[in-house]
Write a structure and sequence with these properties.
Length: 343
C-alpha cells in the first residue's frame, strides 16, 4: 500500500507564478525518478499552499507509469510513530528493512522530525542508502531548510544535494483558475463575477479558498438558489469571521464612515468630494494596517480601485500624520478603537 490518494494529480494541480518552479521540478522528477539532479526534491511553503497535493501527484504519476516501482508516501508524523512503535516492540530492523526497499520515498512535513534525534538518525541512514542506490526522495517542509530548527546539520546538508523549491501564496490569476477548475470538476455553474469576487477576497491559501467554495455550494443547495454574488458574500462571512481578526474590512469601513460622518456607500463610490476622499484614504490606511488583505483586495473592496490607488492613499495618510497635528489626533483615536477591538 503506497498511501497515495489518487485524487491528487498534476492534471488538477493548477500552475501559476506561485508554484511554477516547484511544479516543473516535480514533473521532471515524476517522469525520471532518481535520475535527475533533483534528488532529493524538497518542496517548502506555508500551510494550505499545495505541498501535499504536489508530492502526491508525483507519486501517482510514477505509480501509474511504472506499476512495478514501490512508491511510498508517508507523513513525517507517521514515520516517527512507526519508528517509536518499532523501538517498543524490538522491531527496528524490520522498520529499517521496509524503508530500504522503497523505490520512491515521499516524506511529508519533515519539520515534524525536529528535535527527534533517534528518528533523525534512522532517517539519515535510510536517506543515504536510498540516495546511493539511485532511488528518488521527495520531501516537504513548512519552512526553508535553513530555518528547520532542531534538525541535525548532517541531515540538512543532505537536503541541499538536490533541489529546493518553494510554494508561494497563489496570485490572483491562479486563484481564479483554481476556483473555476474546482467548480467545473464538481459540475457546478459559477458566474464570472462570483469567481472574481472570491479570488479577490480570499487571498491567503488554497485550503481556505476551498473552504469557501464548499460553504458556497452548501448555501446554494440549502437555499435552493443558483450561485450568485449575494450568496457568495454570505458564504464568505461564515468562513472569514473565524479566520480574520475581529477588525475586518466591514468594521473598518463602518467605523471610519461614522467617524467622518460620511455614508458607507460613499466610501465605495466614485465620488471625489474632499471629505469623502479623506475618509476613504483613512479607511484604506487602516485596512492595510489591521487586515491581511492584499493591496489589490483592499482596492477591490473600495469600489474597484487598483492597488496603486491604495498605495497612494496610505502614503497620503502617512504624510498628513506627519504634518497635521489635528489629523494625527483623529488617526490615533481611530487606531485606539481598532486596537482595543483586535485585543
Ligand atoms: P499543504 O500540504 O501545503 O498544506 P495541500 O496540498 O493539502 O496543502 O493543499 C490544500 C488544498 O488546496 C488541497 O485540497 C489541494 O488540492 C488544493 N490545492 C493547493 N494548490 C493547488 C493548486 N495549485 N491547484 C489546485 N488545487 C490546489
Ligand atoms: Mg500538507
Amino acid at each position: 500500500n503506497s498511501q497515495l490518494n489518487s485524487a491528487y494529480t498534476f492534471e488538477n494541480y493548477i500552475e501559476g507564478d506561485c508554484n511554477r518552479l516547484a511544479r516543473s521540478a516535480g514533473y521532471a522528477v515524476a517522469n525520471k525518478p532518481g535520475t535527475t539532479s533533483f534528488n532529493p526534491l524538497m518542496v517548502y511553503g506555508g500551510v494550505g499552499l499545495g505541498k501535499t497535493h504536489l508530492v502526491q501527484a508525483i507519486g501517482n504519476h510514477i505509480k501509474n507509469s511504472n506499476p512495478d516501482k514501490f512508491v511510498l508516501y508517508v507523513s513525517s508524523e507517521k514515520f516517527v510513530n512507526q519508528f517509536i512503535e518499532s523501538l517498543k516492540t524490538n522491531n527496528v530492523q524490520d522498520f529499517a528493512n521496509f524503508y530500504l526497499l522503497v523505490d520512491i520515498l515521499i516524506i511529508d512535513d519533515v519539520q515534524f522530525l525536529s528535535g527527534k534525534e533517534k528518528t533523525q538518525e534512522m532517517f539519515f541512514h535510510i536517506f543515504n542508502h536510498l540516495h546511493q542506490s539511485g532511488k528518488q526522495i521527495v520531501m516537504t517542509s513548512d519552512c526553508p531548510p535553513r530555518d528547520l530548527k532542531g534538525l541535525e546539520e548532517r541531515l540538512l546538508s543532505r537536503f541541499k544535494w538536490g533541489l529546493t523549491a518553494d510554494l508561494q501564496s497563489p496570485d490572483f490569476e491562479t486563484r481564479m483558475a483554481i476556483i473555476q477548475k474546482k467548480m467545473q470538476g464538481d459540475g457546478i455553474d459559477i458566474p464570472d463575477n462570483v469567481v472574481e469576487y472570491l479570488a479577490y477576497s480570499v487571498d491567503t491559501n488554497v485550503r481556505e479558498l476551498e473552504g469557501v467554495l464548499i460553504s458556497l455550494i452548501a448555501q446554494s443547495s440549502l437555499n435552493r438558489k443558483e450561485i450568485d454574488l449575494e450568496l457568495a458574500k454570505q458564504a464568505l462571512k461564515h468562513i472569514i469571521e473565524d479566520v480574520e481578526t475581529e477588525v475586518n474590512l466591514d468594521f473598518i469601513q463602518k467605523t471610519v464612515a461614522e467617524y467622518f460622518q460620511v455614508s458607507l456607500d460613499s466610501l465605495k463610490a466614485k465620488t471625489r468630494k474632499k471629505e469623502i476622499v479623506t475618509a476613504r484614504q483613512v479607511a484604506m490606511y487602516f485596512a492595510k494596517e489591521f487586515t491581511s488583505h492584499s493591496l489589490k483586495s483592499i482596492g477591490y473592496h473600495f469600489g474597484g480601485r487598483d492597488h496603486s490607488t491604495v498605495i497612494h492613499s496610505v502614503q497620503t495618510v502617512s504624510d498628513l500624520i506627519d504634518t497635521d497635528k489635528k489629523f494625527k489626533a483623529s488617526i490615533q483615536e481611530l487606531q485606539k478603537k481598532f486596537k482595543s477591538k483586535a485585543g
